Model the fold of this input.
Amino acid sequence: MTAHRILTYFIAAVWLINGLACKVLDLVPRHEQIVARILGDDFAKPLTILIGTAEMGMAVWILTRWMPRFNAIIQMVLVASMNTLEFFMAADLLLWGRINVLFAVLFIGLIYYWEFVLKNDI
Done:
């Protein structure tokens, strides 16, 4: 199995786990708390489920390899946007506080490397 294929499965798994386990199944309640802090309490539960469902859709999109470069750009923008909002509005609710931004930058770098540097062999 090539590095590109391994990273494809890994990146898809990150989106799937965060969407399904953390948000849709609510196994990590702080995700809903973050949504409530940023978007308000009134619709935090359904919005968290909606965000989680969209993250699961991202995992499927990654695995289909449909428009892969556009997909990678969307992923990088989403991760940067979500983490910027969380950094300024909900840092106290993040697993590693403001240091979370480091993991976001590393994940963005991994996505870039996966799609724009490695040979696309899938």
About this structure: The CA atoms of residues 62 and 68 lie 7 Å apart. The chain has five helices and no strands. Helices lie at 3-24, 30-39, 44-64, 68-89, 100-117.
